[in-house]
Specification:
Blueprint lengths: L29 H7 L2 E5 L2 E5 L5 E6 L4 E8 L6 E7 L3 E9 L10 E4 L5 E9 L5 E2 L2 E2 L3 E3 L6 E10 L4 E5 L16 E5 L2 E3 L4 E5 L5 E3 L2 E3 L5 E3 L3 E5 L2 E2 L3 E3 L9 E5 L2 E2 L3 E3 L5 E3 L18 H5 L25 E7 L6 E13 L13 E4 L4 E8 L4 E15 L4 E5 L2 E3 L1 H4 L3 E6 L7 E8 L3 E3 L11 E3 L2 E7 L2 E6 L3 E7 L3 E5 L3
Parallel strand pairs: 2-4, 3-5, 4-6, 5-7, 6-8, 7-11, 8-12, 11-13, 12-14, 12-15, 13-16, 14-17, 15-18, 16-19, 17-20, 18-21, 19-22, 20-23, 21-24, 22-25, 23-26
Antiparallel strand pairs: 1-2, 9-10, 27-31, 27-32, 28-30, 28-31, 29-30, 32-33, 34-39, 34-41, 35-38, 35-40, 36-39, 37-38
Length: about 500
């Protein structure tokens, strides 16, 4: 059900920073900062604001104001912030937030252009998340219903908030809503959202869209709440949703070159999701998205100009998704055979000049969610495939083959991981569960068993991560030697499946 926005008036609270064209905390404003009790530490090219425990740091932006090159550290217990942007020509740029948000404020960033005009939110890191506050479910970015102009949101990283990642459907509110919408537009580009249970991205006015965005993890991926919105060249791992039963909104979501999993979902008969998936969604971080608070504040990209997608692509391979798997036969072999089975999908790599599959190599759908691949090679030649899923069995004489997975040489034992580990938080969509698993063998994230996101890490025999209303899945070999779970999630281990 839609959350009542009657308590979400544009903030009138005073900021301890006097309004000026640039709201960076330079020496001229140090006195007002001291009076507020907030420590400020200068760093190269950006300012760090350290908020004391139990305090909330407020910023107020109006016409022409900019908050930029600022790192807000809320690591202390109960520390928080509130950025209120209302007017024309304001900008929130190169801002990173370090620490989990646990202050009693439901909307740390409230943005609108109430009398037309434009606003900009760009290169912002909100990836440490926030909790279910007494004031309401925390949201990374909230665009108020009274927004009538246009807001661009670009290169934003928003993860792990208790409600929405970007909540921008309010401007589409019906006239009979307690807060009728202003019909302002919001366009989100080159951004990443994960593990925001209500929705990662939520829009609701004609002319609003997400372009080159990625969402994954728990909860809804994209939610077109009202009117007609678009997804353009996006990768959605956790479902596409249209309309809302409470307001009976006839929403339409139009898909253009968008890859998705998790299904399509509508809440009223008049709602529609127009278009089909353009393939398997890619696990990637859009170029330029900051992956740390420091990277955002210093205006240095957290990515290397590529993405986290492990697919090796060539000019002839622009369509396939998955991880490149190469099988190269020894130079002294002849007609060496292989066969392997994947839970998921497999596509041949056919680029010329490289290791590539041929017409006599077969990919057979088994009708149970698995495919079996078979072929033969020899004399130093080989075959290659894009594998989107888990390799669950392999039959070949390993002494005759060199195997490369994602560009790294591997053994059959590295690839075929017989055990499953699933951490399931889907029964508690608003609560976080953190886990650490120690194991004796090899482990790999499994998109087939759960979400794959940046909070999940495998390193030196340890798996660590968190779920907020979603599911994380892994395949592993060996035995589990240690385990810790903080939170209500359930754990399922299947050995030798």
């Amino acid at each position: 059900m839609a959350r009542d926005e009657t308590t979400r008036e544009p903030s009138e609270e005073a900021s301890n920073v006097n309004r000026r064209n640039y709201l960076r905390l330079a020496a001229a404003t140090a006195a007002s900062v001291t009076a507020f009790g907030t420590g400020v530490t200068a760093a190269a090219d950006f300012e760090t604001i350290t908020v004391p425990a139990g305090e909330v740091r407020s910023f107020s932006l109006g016409d022409g104001d900019t908050l930029e090159n600022t790192l807000i550290d809320i690591s202390a217990s109960g520390a928080g912030y509130r950025i209120s942007a209302s007017g024309d020509g304001w900008a929130i740029r190169n801002v990173g937030v370090r620490g989990y948000f646990d202050a009693n404020v439901d909307d740390p960033i409230v943005a609108l252009c109430p009398n037309g005009g434009t606003g900009t939110i760009e290169n912002v890191y909100l990836g440490d998340g926030g909790y279910d506050a007494p004031a309401g479910l925390t949201t990374g970015i909230f665009v108020h219903a009274y927004h009538t102009g246009h807001i661009d949101i670009d290169r934003v990283n928003v993860q792990g908030w208790a409600g929405n990642g970007v909540y921008a459907s309010g401007p589409g509110n019906h006239d009979d809503h307690p807060n009728p919408g202003g019909d302002g537009t919001v366009q989100i580009t080159n951004s990443y959202a994960a593990d925001n249970p209500t929705a990662d991205f939520r829009l609701g006015t004609d002319g609003s869209y997400c372009k080159n965005c990625v969402c994954e993890g728990s909860g809804r991926g994209y939610w077109g709440f009202y009117n007609t919105t678009k997804l353009i060249d996006c990768d959605v791992h956790n479902g596409i949703y249209a309309s809302d039963g409470a307001w009976e909104s006839p929403a339409v979501v139009q898909l253009e070159n968008t890859r998705f999993s998790g299904g399509t979902h509508t809440y009223v008969d008049s709602a529609d999701i127009s278009g089909s998936s353009a393939g398997t969604p890619r696990d990637r971080m859009p170029d330029g998205v900051p992956t740390t608070a420091k990277a955002a504040a210093s205006a240095t990209s957290g990515t290397d100009g590529g993405s986290s997608d492990s697919t090796t692509s060539e000019s002839d391979d622009s369509g396939p998704t998955g991880t490149l798997f190469e099988l190269v036969a020894g130079s002294d072999t002849s007609n060496a055979e292989y066969e392997f089975t994947v839970e998921g999908s497999v596509q041949k790599r056919t680029a010329s000049g490289d290791v590539a599959a041929e017409s006599n190599d077969t990919v057979s759908d088994n009708g149970d969610g698995t495919v079996t691949v078979s072929g033969l090679s020899g004399n130093g030649y080989g075959d290659a495939f894009f594998v989107d899923g888990d390799i669950v069995s392999m039959n070949l004489d390993e002494s005759k083959w060199t195997l490369r997975y994602g560009g790294e040489e591997v053994s059959v034992g590295d690839l075929v991981l017989p055990n499953k580990l699933v951490i399931d938080g889907s029964d508690t969509p608003r609560q976080s569960s953190e886990y650490t698993v120690e194991f004796s063998g090899t482990a790999r994230k499994s998109a087939a068993l759960g979400s794959v996101n940046s909070h999940d890490v495998i390193s030196d025999g340890t798996i660590s991560g968190r779920v907020i209303g979603g599911t994380d899945g892994y395949r592993f070999s060996g035995e589990i030697t240690g385990f810790r779970l903080d939170g209500p999630a359930t754990v399922n281990v299947e050995d030798d499946v």
